[in-house]
Amino acid sequence: MKFSFNLINSFLKPKIDLNISIDLIEKYLTEVKEIGKFANDHILNIDILANRAYDLFSHYGLARELASLYLIKKNEKIALQPLSNANMEFRQSSEQSIRFKNKSGDNLNRYSYIYIKDIKVQESPDELKNLLFSLGIKPINLIVDVTNLVMVEIGQPLHAFDVDMIKGKEIIVAFANKGETIKTFDEKEYKLTNNILTIRDISGPLAIAGVKGGVSSGITNKTKNIVVESANFSEKAIRNTAFYLKIGSDAEKRFKNGVDLDLTIFGLQRFCELYKKYSKLDSYEFFDFKNPLIAKDRKEIVKCSLAQINKMLNINLKTKDACDIFEKLNFQVVKTSKDLICIEKPLFRNDINIEEDLIEEIFRLQDFDNIKRESLSMELKMPRQLNHFDNVKLIRNYLLHNGVNEIASISFVGKNDLLDFYDSSDFPNFVEIDNPVSQDLNFLRPSLNPCLLKALTNNARFSDEVNLFEIGKVYSYGLGSIKENITLGILMFNKDKSLLSQISNLRKIKSLIFNTCGLFCEINFKYINNLNISIYADNDFVGKVFLLDEKIKINHKILQDVLISEIILDNIIIRKIKETSFKNIDKIPYVKRDLSILVPKKISYKDLIDTIQNLKLKSLREIDLIDIYIDKNFKDCISYTFHLQFGASSRTITELEADKDFTKILESLKSQGVFIR
Amino acid sequence: MQDKIRNIKKKFETEIALVKDKKSLFSFEKKFLGRRGILKLLFDELKNLSLEEKKIAGPLLNKIKEEFFSKINFLKDNLGQDNIKKEVELDLTLPQYSKSGFFNPLVQVSEKIQETFLRLGFSIYDSAHVETDYYNFTSLNIPEMHPARDMWNTFYIKSKVKTQNTENSKYTILRTHTTAFQARALKDFKPPFKFINIGRCFRYEPVDKTHNTDFNQVDGLIVSKDINLSNFVDILYNFFEEIFESKLDIKISPSYFPFVEPGFELSIKRKNDDKFLEVMGAGFSHPNVIKNAGLDSKVWKGIAFGMGIERIAMIYYKIDDIRYFYSQDLRVFKNIQ
Fold first, then answer.
1. Cβ–Cβ contact B305 with A under 8 A
2. What is the pLDDT of residues A248-301, one digit of tens each?
3. Does A50 contact B101 at a Cβ distance shorter than 8 Å?
4. Is B228 in contact with A374 (CB distance < 8 Å)?
5. B140 with B259: CB under 8 angstroms?
6. Residue B145 has pLDDT above 90, yes or no
7. Is the pLDDT confidence value at B117 over 50?
8. Which residue, A37, A289, A538, A605, is most buried by CB atoms nearer than 10 A?
9. What's the burial of A134, exposed, middle or buried (CB within 10 Å: 0-12/13-18/19+)?
10. How far apart are the C-alpha atoms of A387 and A380, rounded to whole Å?
11. pLDDT tens-digit profile of A83-126?
């Protein structure tokens, strides 16, 4: 909120210094976000937080706070000028020219106004216009400008109506009727409902109560008679209005945080004082309505324990020190005992309600330049990791060490991103956002695939090889509630179209899955079709490895193969690392044989292994794939080299026996159409 | 004599490394093991030694004779006509594979934060991204229709026929802060305890250099019967000095959050920083938060704190734009590593 330093100082005697004030505010109140110079004034943009909105959304309130800070921190007495001329008294006449009715129950706390006849609408003098302008308020005419000045001065919003536009000479405070509309002074139209509190006359709404005035009853050059409203509405009513109409204003900001009931009268007094400085103001009619439903007795006692203060803040404050601070903050200390301090809740502070609020006042005024450090003593317990941090870390670090790059994507995706991987019939399972930042980011991602694909298209421009992974959450509906699953997505892509490089990527992605998830469970791959394989962890389906569809590739102008893997990690990371135990080394030597074969492409690796294993040779201990390559001369085939190991269980196998079984393997492969090199 | 044996052994080892082919192996064998070879001469000298000297030198000579035989035979087996030992062709200056993947600095910092808290004895809670507004706001002393809710711009989940409608909660939202775990932790675990909750949060905000719709936070909650400001400051020094790997100064300024009272902001200044950098909001748990969880706020005191992880990562890696973390652009991450 913007403050004019000169205006603050106008309430103080002697005047305070700018730099000292800024320093005090920053140290003991809140952040000063910006300091600007405006003619001979300084404009401070101060971050007044919600708990001090009640007293500090006004220059007078801030002046009061600064006077206290000067007193407490610098031991300098700065006098706060009284709010208004005490001699000015309002008398309510027995006959009201304008009738008033409250039909809003306890949503109206107080309604007062002055009715001024024969007023001349004129432009404000430069000094007033400049002041308002520097605070971000547009000057309109003297009447409206003075109402705005009163609001920034003391925090009481005022509103001026053109009396001749009030039909039936009656002001009614009531909720709108559904379907009513109002056009506000800034030319905006609003559709009203019965949640919206309005100031109205017999024909309809004149203003959105406490928020914005209507254009029809606003002050124009033709206005001759005005009513200056100074009211106090319930915080709840104003918040409802702001919420349902999605509307805001300087007045609404103040009313929704609450405004001191007594300020209504001060507001009108101040209006008269200020207006008289610039123009004539002879007579007026005064009216005041105090809602009897609002509790009269506002005296509340708040207690705090000195021991508690000292314990929490680890300081050694005496009773008299604490009372001294409270009194300098303009709180009234009503009683003290050995430990307890009771203060009367100040009328200008609605944030002082419980002991902790008083402790906060003591706290913020301490100088914590060198706070003592003291170890917290707490029982030693092994920390839990409900998010299985350790296991996720293992997976992540393994991927990084093996050359896969890490990305993070936002959680939102759009319809088009999803149609790459899903059907329209899948959409009911997706979680939709009611108020997305844009229409192409209105779903929560049900899968990492669209994010990985986006990352590919982003990076393929700069790189011939794109290997990346993301570990993150995906969202979908399941069993009536929203499921969140931690997922691992991996993408491998190489502009090198050669089959060999694609083979290398596939083996790599399978290795990554096997060596990470395989730490916790038994990982098995199951062939589905020539585009994808399923991944099982301890016989539970957890994900798949697949080649990106041609259709999607064309959509995104990709030529080469793209390998993607997506695995749901939730059930994997909750496990511990697989138990292993030592197995004695086989002391019986093996016979080794190399198997080099040329395999037509239509025969899969799985087919080869199945062929060999179907022989059920007891002596075959190990089949190790050593090399895959594509021989230039045999482009329709893939060359494999295996190391085979033969052994017998209880004795050394002979070369002859090994050769016999090896030949069986060769014959079996040959019969399948495999060529032996 | 022993010296002579040692020297012969050295000579043998030096010269055998230079043997390149069968021809030179043959003459090498003859030189050392031949009838008039070096070893034979040494064996002949044995008779000139005393009994004690013979007792030592004799077995020693036999031992090295065995060694020589075994090494020469090894070369004989493996040194064929074609197995000529080559000159070293391997160029040792060839570079390593640049094989390590680039990490995302945001995740890296997040990992470091979790590790540091674990070492300080904090457990890690895991609360969902999709929350009810009860846990995200109401339980944290942020009632409905309260201006305090304006501090967080919320994403609402489009309600389906049946939504999460628990604990007086009207709305299903994306959590706006990791603070949303406090009431859950207080319900699930008995104090005293120290917990952090870390992960992604969401705010409906225009995206710019320092704001993004998706961002990460870590929130902490320490609940104990006896905890004071000095304890908290001690934990913070331990934490920040570990994260930033340097001694630093911590400054406390008054602030306000609905779920703490008193509330404050924390700033740090490392040796090379020219000003204090705001990093954390914190405070003593508001008694309403403790009471909402069914605990006696006179007995149990809490300290809560929260940090934006992007902010820490931006300070640590000197990155000036939050959007880099989510850009998926590997060139950015490459530049950090």
1. no
2. 999 999 999 999 998 999 999 999 999 999 998 888 899 999 999 887 666 889
3. no
4. yes
5. yes
6. no
7. yes
8. A289
9. buried
10. 21
11. 776 567 788 877 888 999 999 999 999 999 999 999 999 999 99
- Cβ A475–B130 below 8 Å, yes or no? yes
What are the structure tokens assigned to B199, written together? 């992960």
Backbone phi, psi, residue A541, to 5°: -70, 125
Count of CB atoms situated within 10 Å of the CB of A71: 18
User: Strand A99-102 to strand A32-38: parallel, antiparallel, or no bridges (unpaired)?
Assistant: unpaired
Residues 173-232 on B with a CB inside 8 Å of A are 174, 192, 194, 198-200, 202, 204, 206-207, 212-214, 222, 224, 226-232
User: Buried b / exposed e across B185-195, counting CB within 10 Å, b at 16+?
Assistant: bbeeeebbbbb
**Unique residue bearing structure tokens 């809710």:** B149
Cβ distance A475 to B129 less than 8 Å, yes or no, reads yes
A 423-482: CB under 8 A from B: 431-437, 441, 444, 451, 454-455, 458-459, 462-463, 466-469, 471-473, 475, 477, 480-482
B333 within 8 A of B104, measured Cβ to Cβ = yes
Question: What is the C-alpha separation between B309 and B145, in angstroms, rounded?
Answer: 29
Note whether B80 contacts A: Cβ–Cβ < 8 A. Answer: no
Which residues, in sequence order, are CB contacts of B304 under 8 Å at separation 6+?
A: B179, B182, B219, B220, B221, B222, B259, B260, B282, B283, B284, B285, B289
Residue A540: CB atoms within 10 A of its CB come to 11
Output the CA torsion B295→B296→B298→B300 (10° steps). Answer: -30
Closest Cα to residue B314, out of B177, B178, B197, B216? Answer: B216
- Residue B263: its chain A contacts at CB < 8 A? 360
- Degrees to nearest 5, angle at CA B73 with B71 and B77: 120
Amino acid at A295: A
Cross-chain Cβ contact B101/A399 below 8 Å: yes
Interval B263-299: pLDDT, tens: 999 999 998 899 999 999 999 999 999 999 999 999 9
3-state secondary structure of A324: helix
Which residues are CB-contacts of B184 (< 8 A; sequence separation ≥ 6)?
B125, B127, B135
What is the amino acid identity at position A338? K
From the list A385, A405, A434, which residue is nearest B157 (CB)?
Answer: A434
Contact between B132 and B172 under an 8 Å Cβ cutoff? The reply is: yes
Determine the pLDDT at residue A525. Answer: 95
Nearby residues of A207 by Cβ (< 8 Å), 6 or more positions away: A159, A161, A182, A198, A199, A213, A214, A217
Whole-model pTM: value is 0.87
Token pair 């309005």: residue = A198
Inter-chain touch A371–B118, beta carbons under 8 Å: no
